[in-house]
Amino acid sequence: MRAALAVLGAMFLLVVGTLWWLKFEPHAPQVSLLSPVSALGRKTPIDFDVRSDAPGLRAVSVRLQAGGTGYDLLSETYPSTSWRGSGVAEKRLHVEADLLALRVPEGAATLEVYVDTYGWHWRSVAHVPRLTVPVTVHMLPPKIELLTTQHYVRVGGMDVAVFRQSANTVRSGIEVDRYFFPARTGYFSDPAIALVLFAVPQDLSADVRPRLVASDAAGNRREVYLPCKITPRRFAERTLVVDDGFISRVVPDIAQAGRLALSGDGLKDYLFINGELRQRNEARIREVTAQSAAVPLWDGAFRRQSNAAPLSSFADRRTYTYQGGVVDRQTHLGYDLASLKLSAVEAAQNGVVVYADDLGIYGNAVILDHGLGMFTLYGHLSSIAVQPGEQVKTGQTIGQTGQTGLAGGDHLHFSVILSGVHVDPVEWWDSHWLHDRVTAKLTMFPRAVVTSGAEQNEQTRP
After folding, report:
1. pLDDT greater than 90 at residue 393
2. The listed CATH number (2.70.70.10, 3.30.1490.190, 2.60.120.10, 1.10.1240.10) that belongs to domain 237-424+452-459
3. What does DSSP say about strands 344-346 and 335-338: parallel, antiparallel, or unpaired?
4. pLDDT band at 125 (very low <50, low <70, confident <90, very high)
5. Do domains 24-137 and 144-231 have the same CATH topology?
6. Which of 416, 423, 339, 345 is nearest to 381 (CA)?
7. Can you say whether the dihedral through the CA atoms of 9, 10, 15, 18 is positive or negative?
8. What architecture (CATH level 2) is domain 24-137?
9. Whole-angstrom Cα distance, residue 301 to residue 236?
10. What is the pLDDT of residues 197-238, one digit of tens each?
């Protein structure tokens, strides 16, 4: 009898021990925010990760304590898939509740995250918040007042807007469809006045409606549509014949310069360079032009390459044919200017070198920062005469023309770029356009610091 009881006791202890081993969760569930949260607006997004040891999560809830009341922002449950639990050990959750609809009062509040699991614990975890974050609820968006009342833009061209924004603004600018052009503060003596250079990119229609936007730290956002007249435009169409001779000349050089692993099929590799590599190069240009001097470094209209004739114009729509058939279509973002072979390439205006290296389809290239988001690019160079960080003057030689990259012959590819977006250089070659559309608006209000072009160059670069 005693032996039987002993066996039963041992079996009981074995079963209990096994259950304890399978169900006991030695560590409390963990909650971590993906990014810090200190202020909540009407619909501020909050993302966080929840982790728990096996046997998995049972429920997660997010609550906001404000004004003595709890407001439920999210609640999820995870049904068990076996006797052991749900098996859900990790979960990434996104919260974007409408605090205005929930009637949450503004002011100090506390964000709480509760987690329940299928595991056994020494103490209950379901009723104790696993994450507590003090926050401030603020749902009034920033104020913005447009100070420039009329804007005239051609598709592919640009303009300037000046506006006043409230002190709680942390991000502002102009959205044109999917493009964003950031505003700049500190240029005028009144810190509340901001300016933004914006464009209607060449791949958009004249029907787009640019809008001035401003948001605060809590994500509250205000929009104001610009009074803007956009002139439609039809760009030139060109057909370029690609042959085996051209492919065999340009593809190996570009592959070697960019350390590209290509297939060995000449046409296939050319199409990769003309398409995929072109996109990569534009992404690199956006990276390089993401930061700009806080003041204009230019002094007057931009200079066009001396004694150079245009081979193509801005935003040409190019169709590429091979052995009589269409193989590709691309848009040419800039001007091709040809003079004598190995001609000196001149800086279009005062600026700072931000790039001087191989750039894929552009070959050897130089990019200059002219301030306020304005840049110029010089491509297909045979040689480069400047270094990144170097300050250059208008007309200074920065290299020599060539046929590196996707160039059919010796010439200069010249682009004007605003905040990563190619715009029509013709406008910046025109002193009257520059005065009416840009300079007049930059002188609407007193400047914060009035310096010469050279002093500006010194003060706005490390």
Report:
1. yes
2. 2.70.70.10
3. unpaired
4. low
5. yes
6. 345
7. positive
8. Sandwich (2.60)
9. 25
10. 999 999 999 999 999 999 998 989 999 999 999 999 999 999
